[in-house]
Amino acid sequence: MKKIIIKFSLLLAFAAGTASCTKLDEEVFSSIPADGFFRNEAEVMTNVGRIYAQLRKITNRFGAGSLDLVGTDECIIPFRETNLWYDNGLWIALHKHEYNPNLQVMNGGYSFCFDGISMANQILFQLAESPVDFPSKPKIIAEVKIARAFFYYRALDWFGNVPISTDFKDVTIPKQSTRTEVWDFVVKEITDNIQFLDDAPTTANYGRTCTKAMANMMLAKLYLNAPKWKGTTKLDEAIAATDAVINTNGYSLSSDYFSNFTANNGGSKENIFVVPYDKTKTPGNILQIHCWTLHTLSQQTFGLIAFTWDGYATLEDFYRSYDANDKRIKTWMEGPQYSASGAPLMLSATRQLNYRPQIKALYNTTNPALLDDGVRFKKYEYEAGLRDNESMSNDWVVFRYADALMMKAEAIMRKNGNVANQAAVDLVNQVRFRAFGDHAHDFTTATLTMDALLAERGREFAWEYHRRQDLIRFNKWNEAWFEKPAGNVNHELYPLPTQALNVNPNLKQNTGY
């Protein structure tokens, strides 16, 4: 990754390593009083670094990494010939929206949120107890609170009715809060603390991406989704939050869409909130999209050493939504496959690996999906030489400047009775121009419908963990698509996991489960 991450990556490595170390003679800092260890800013930041290590679990495919991806119309993991990818029916259940509280990913997503929240509460307690003072301490406290707000934002989206806990010393079992109460809490946390944050990351604080721009992106999401999450409309507030991002110095659309996803994407002026990964400097939770999606023969295309698993693909209808001239279609690998030297990649003596858009079935034991059914994801650069259990070095993109433009356009359209005006069209066309390189494919006030906007969001933000939220907001989540029947409104929330219910008797399961 970038050389400016090295200093901060030590904090991430410390945070990840403490959970798995086996040296019995090491000092265990977690048992030292705050006034005995957190004696200066550097030591405080070592502790705060644990929050950013926790964020790397955002791509864990048995938790947070699946709740926003698998089950949408942009991702499918079919049961394939040679009995690949059954996994006790997990991916089939997610795809068909047949959720239950015992699915591993439910507990994984819930733990991602509440482990992060508990960690933030502990750090804030230690900061309050420590007598050390320095000029940036209020900013660091605000940074931790914004990180905690992000974990609550995810819990609010996925599970809705969750406990609010902010006191690390409180050992009582927390009460369940309503989704409205959680929404109010998260908005207040952001608005109370945003003033103390840096506008944007700098070379001095690379990796610490809880900034004003990040916080305003989170506010924009909260306001735009308020009808579903709070039962009220907050479109003016959504526009104000996106304007705050758009007017922040230093952010702009990258001229090359794919430059935002390279192995060295730290210099992107478009990426607002990222989770840093690095194959040597961020151990523990790693980024492995190449393993999720590519057939193992594709190692020879990208120079990979790691064995890849031939699983994740996109649905044919989603792929077909791209215009052939749309540069973003290169997000996907389609057609006969070749090695880096141009040699055909052969599944057998007579069968070349051919990533076709069509997928035979989600789950059919007698006529399963083929090994090469489904086009494969390659938006993120796959760095040559990656080994087994080694992370990609790309920063995972959570929020981008393009989304600020698109969210503002959507809010304007919703204010205008779901009809585009020229202001909305101009915002969307800023993004669309990059995809085509000309104005021949621009939207007009007649062609930019709400359905067209949702489809454009799909193409622009494919596999960036926005699709589930978007489909719910546009009232499409419960519609039928390939191998998924029409659902019901209860499934716009996931079930609270059984483990959480067992631990906290104050929790009541979400409706419909």
UniProtKB/TrEMBL annotation:
InterPro entries: SusD-like_N, SusD_RagB_dom, TPR-like_helical_dom_sf. Coiled coil: none annotated. Gene3D superfamilies: 1.25.40.390, SusD-like, Tetratricopeptide repeat domain. It comes from the Bacteria. Residues 245-513 form the RagB/SusD domain. It is found in: Cell outer membrane. PROSITE patterns: PROKAR_LIPOPROTEIN. Keywords: Cell outer membrane, Membrane, Signal. Its main location: membrane. Residues 79-224 form the SusD-like N-terminal domain. The keyword Membrane applies. The keyword Membrane applies. Residues 1-18 form the signal peptide. Belongs to the SusD family. This is RagB/SusD family nutrient uptake outer membrane protein. The lineage of its organism: Bacteria, Pseudomonadati, Bacteroidota, Chitinophagia, Chitinophagales.
